[in-house]
Design brief:
Blueprint (H helix, E strand, L loop, with lengths): L1 H8 L3 H21 L11 H39 L3
Helix pairs in contact: 1-2
Length: 86
């Protein structure tokens, strides 16, 4: 949704504001009233935090590797395009 909004408006400003408001509402109204969520340090919440942190780190590394590979492919395609006779 935020990506489509940024594409249509050619600006990320609306997405930033929308995301910030969503986080504000979640952390001030939703999370404090959620009896199922536990604070880190109280039982299984710490385990889930570690699992999610490991997932985030893993996927961040994989994304960086993919973007580096895509950038290399893009450079090769540009070099071939520039070297080709008109």
């Amino acid at each position: 949704m935020l990506g489509a909004t940024a594409c249509l408006t050619r600006s990320v400003l609306l997405g930033i504001v929308t995301h910030a408001l969503g986080l504000l509402v979640f952390f001030t109204l939703v999370w404090p009233a959620d009896v199922i969520r536990r604070v880190v340090g109280q039982g299984t919440a710490e385990l889930w935090l570690r699992i999610h942190a490991a997932q985030t780190l893993t996927f961040a590394v994989l994304a960086i590797l993919a973007f580096v590979q895509l950038a290399g492919i893009r450079r090769e395609a540009s070099a071939k395009h520039e070297a080709a006779p008109p």
